[in-house]
Structure formats: structure tokens, C-alpha cells
């Protein structure tokens, strides 16, 4: 432990220099967002004026450019100021979560209300066409600009740029849990540089290999020597709340941010409410949302969406059917028994992408690959036919499942439909996947498909079940297009 801390202190000057650069770079993110918003609003102004003067359904023959010479700049300055007042440039909102978008959108609506009421009270004849176009165009442009900035920030984090140096304080077991999440979500930009354990812990590393660089009694000094930007307080870091408060005060002197990480994982933000009571922040967790995923709204969306997709994709369906039949004159569809909601079995439809005796060859492949349970996939499966490779590359083989959706056996979005043999091995936790309809796509598909481990696929499915929302479904459908186009994990 002492050697690890000494090694970190040797290059403290380099760490301080790097931290100063990192701090300046992170400070520039809100300024970049301000520049992005300014450009978006300037483009909005130009488009709104042009549209007002040229679109046929607005009053023609009147150029509003002159009238907006004073009010226009004031309106857009107020727009930026309202975003700033709403916390749209606070460093904490960038990188993750919906807060950034919510603040921008809410500030835009507030600006529209203030401008509308202000012009009415002042009896200023602001062009209604310009007013309408400004906010109809401006809000999506602002959100799109923030989205592009976030994608660039995530890419920088994955490349190791603009990362926060993190020290985790707590019991080794909880330290490893938090570290696993931070490593998995590399786009967050957290780089773990060491762990701090309670006094008396003698190991030099945690079970996952994170170096222990000190104990919690000297946390501020240890974090400073490691050049930490953020210290995570995990379970077991302190014996009393007074110790934790004093440690936070000490870290405050070093300008080190404190993050409290409770023993709660895989819970969506929408299910969490923090309510301080007598100075004690109580975290309230809403019940799991699996029941909401079975309501009529989702079913209506599935039925409508699947019907539209069958109509639009009918030429591809016909072409795929012809290619499968022409290859070996065998069956076009492959019907496999899968387990649906509440354990009800159904015939899951796919275009046949393998040879007709694929099931007979499965036992041999299991033995050759040393398969011992879970989801069996091979990158070079010899059973796949030539048209089957094309079908699988773009997930065309799964399009017949649209008819499973129409029949109510599946959903457009949901957990992967498991085989009955898989379900027979489920424990109580894994059976939560069966609380909702299985889906044609889901978090497992947009997160890597066959490249995922069995444990990771299960974790994502359970997360979906517990944290379902219609917005999440729409997001997964949008991300599915990119996952299918890139053929990531498709084999």
C-alpha cells in the first residue's frame, strides 16, 4: 500500500500539470456548448426570417427583417440567458442523463412564453410566422447540437481524452462493483487510479486488481497524491457519518469532487427520487416497471409499428424468401419453440439461414466448442448457408418475427426470446426476463448482440424489464438501425 502511494507521489508535479490541463479542458465544455447554442440560434434566426418572407401560407408582400432588427437580437439573447439561468451550462449536466436536454427544452418553452406575453403587453406587432418558425426550428436544432457535442465528448472519453481521475473509497467488494460499472461504461470518462480501504485492510489490491493506495483515515492526502479529480464514497468507507462529512470537507480544500455511490445498481434515473429529511438524504426507489410494459399503449404501438414495417419491407421479405428457397429448395421459414411472457411457449419465426439438418449437427458443435450452457453462437458456424450469411448480416432472418408481434407473442422491443432449455436453468433473478413479451430487438442487440457475454446479456434484459419506458423503446429502435447497419455482433 505504501509503495503504491509513494509511486503515485513521485510524479505529483506531472499529475498536477496534467490535472490543470484537464481542468481547463473540462471548463471549455460549457463554453463549447455556448458556442454551439449560439450558432444554432443564429441559423434559426436566418431560417425563420427566410421562411416567414417566402413560405406561401404566411402573409406575402411584407418583409419582417427590418422590424426584427431590435427585437430579434433581444429575443435570442434572452433565449441564451434563459438556458444559462436554467443550468444548461452547468458542468454537471454534460455527458450523461436527460437533464441537459430537459433544461434546454424547458428554457426554450419559457423563452417562447416570455416573448409572447411581453409582445402582447407591450403591444409590439411581432410577426407570428417568425415567432412560430423560430421555436419550431430552434428547439430541435439546439437539441441536435447538444447531441452532437455529447457524442464527441463520449468519443473523446473512449479514446482516453478528458477523463476524470477517480479514487474509490470503501470496502473492497463494493469498490470492485463500482469499478466494474465504470469500466463497462467507458464513455463516462472515469479512469480509476486507485482504491482507499478502511483502516486495517492489509491487501495491496482488490479482488479485481485495483491498487490500494491508502486508507480512509488519510483520504484527502491520498487522493491529492494520486491527482484525483473525483472520489467515490462507497459502502464501508467510514464508520460514522461524521467521518464522512469531515473527509468531504478535507477534499473540498483540494477542489476534489465527492460522489456518493450507494449499493444500488441497474436502476434508471426515472425510478429514483432523493428527498432530504432532517438533513438525511433518503433515496426512494419506484417499483419495477414491468407491469407498465404490458399495457395497451405498448401493445397498440407494437401492432401499428409491425403492420407498417411488414408493408414497407414486403419487397425485402419476398426477396429473402426466394433466395432461401432457391438455394436448396428447403423450407423458407424456421420455426423454433421459444418462451414468451409468463413462461408461455410459442413458435418463433425466422427465415431459415442454416442447412436443413442444423439441429442434428448441434450436439457435435457443442462438444467441439466446449459449450457448457447459455447462448450458443459461433462466428464461423458451418451450418449457415450462403444466403443465410446475408440474412444474418443485416438481421433480415428475423423479419418474420413481425408476424409474431402482430399475433401478440412478441414485442418490437424486449428481452431476447429464450429457448425452453435455457429457461429450465434460470434462477429467480433471471426469471424476471419473462415478465414482459420478448422483443425483436432490445438492449442486448444495440449493445453488441452476439459479442456480449451470457451474463451481460442477462443483465441488460433484467435492466430493461425493471426500467421500461416508452422513450427507452423508441431510443432502442433508433439505435437498432445503427447496430444492424454496422453488423456489429451479427453472426
TrEMBL record:
One of its GO terms (molecular function) is phosphotransferase activity, for other substituted phosphate groups. It comes from Nocardioides zeae. It comes from the Bacteria. Belongs to the bacterial sugar transferase family. Coiled coil: none annotated. The chain crosses the membrane at residues 25-50, 70-92, 104-123, 129-149, 303-326. One of its GO terms (cellular component) is membrane. This is Sugar transferase. It is a multi-pass membrane protein. It is found in: Membrane.
Amino acid at each position: 500500500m505504501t509503495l503504491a502511494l509513494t509511486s503515485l507521489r513521485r510524479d505529483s508535479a506531472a499529475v498536477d500539470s496534467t490535472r490543470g490541463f484537464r481542468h481547463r479542458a473540462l471548463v471549455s465544455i460549457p463554453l463549447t456548448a455556448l458556442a454551439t447554442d449560439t450558432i444554432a440560434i443564429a441559423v434559426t434566426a436566418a431560417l425563420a426570417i427566410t421562411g416567414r418572407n417566402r413560405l406561401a401560407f404566411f402573409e406575402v408582400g411584407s418583409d419582417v427583417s427590418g422590424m426584427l432588427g431590435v427585437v430579434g437580437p433581444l429575443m435570442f439573447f434572452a433565449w441564451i440567458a434563459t438556458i444559462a439561468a436554467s443550468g444548461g451550462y452547468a458542468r454537471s449536466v454534460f455527458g450523461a442523463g436527460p437533464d441537459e436536454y430537459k433544461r434546454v427544452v424547458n428554457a426554450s418553452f419559457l423563452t417562447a412564453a416570455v416573448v409572447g406575453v411581453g409582445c402582447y403587453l407591450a403591444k409590439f406587432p411581432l410577426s407570428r410566422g417568425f415567432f412560430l418558425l423560430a421555436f419550431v426550428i430552434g428547439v430541435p436544432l439546439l437539441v441536435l447540437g447538444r447531441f452532437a457535442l455529447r457524442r464527441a465528448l463520449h468519443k473523446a472519453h473512449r479514446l482516453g481524452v478528458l477523463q476524470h481521475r477517480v479514487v474509490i473509497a470503501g470496502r473492497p467488494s463494493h469498490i470492485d462493483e463500482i469499478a466494474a460499472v465504470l469500466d463497462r461504461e467507458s464513455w463516462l470518462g472515469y479512469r480509476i487510479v486507485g482504491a482507499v480501504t478502511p483502516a486495517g485492510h492489509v491487501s495491496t489490491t482488490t479482488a479485481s486488481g485495483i491498487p490500494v493506495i491508502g486508507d480512509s483515515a488519510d483520504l484527502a492526502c491520498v487522493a491529492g497524491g494520486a491527482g484525483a479529480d473525483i472520489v467515490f464514497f462507497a459502502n464501508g468507507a467510514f464508520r460514522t457519518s461524521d467521518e464522512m462529512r469531515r473527509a468531504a470537507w478535507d477534499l473540498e480544500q483540494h477542489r476534489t469532487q465527492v460522489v456518493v455511490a450507494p449499493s444500488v445498481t441497474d436502476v434508471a434515473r426515472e425510478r429514483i427520487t432523493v428527498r432530504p429529511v432532517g438533513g438525511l438524504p433518503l433515496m426512494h426507489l419506484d417499483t419495477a416497471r414491468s407491469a407498465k410494459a404490458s399495457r395497451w399503449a405498448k401493445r397498440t404501438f407494437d401492432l401499428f409499428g409491425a403492420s407498417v414495417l411488414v408493408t414497407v419491407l414486403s419487397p425485402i421479405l419476398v426477396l429473402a424468401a426466394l433466395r432461401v428457397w432457391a438455394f436448396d429448395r428447403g423450407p423458407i421459414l424456421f420455426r423454433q419453440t421459444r418462451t414468451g411472457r409468463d413462461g408461455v411457449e410459442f413458435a418463433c419465426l425466422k427465415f431459415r439461414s442454416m442447412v436443413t439438418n442444423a439441429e442434428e449437427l448441434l450436439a457435435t458443435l457443442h462438444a467441439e466448442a466446449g459449450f457448457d450452457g447459455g447462448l450458443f453462437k459461433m462466428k464461423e458456424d458451418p451450418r449457415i448457408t450462403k444466403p443465410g450469411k446475408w440474412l444474418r448480416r443485416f438481421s433480415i432472418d428475423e423479419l418474420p418475427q413481425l408476424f409474431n408481434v402482430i399475433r401478440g407473442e412478441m414485442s418490437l422491443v424486449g428481452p431476447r426470446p429464450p429457448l425452453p432449455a435455457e429457461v429450465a436453468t434460470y434462477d429467480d433473478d433471471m426469471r424476471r426476463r419473462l415478465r414482459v413479451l420478448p422483443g425483436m430487438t432490445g438492449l442486448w442487440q444495440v449493445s453488441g448482440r452476439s459479442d456480449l457475454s451470457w451474463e451481460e446479456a442477462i443483465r441488460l434484459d433484467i435492466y430493461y424489464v425493471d426500467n421500461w419506458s416508452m422513450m427507452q423503446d423508441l431510443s432502442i429502435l433508433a439505435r437498432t438501425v445503427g447496430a444492424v447497419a454496422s453488423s456489429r455482433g451479427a453472426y
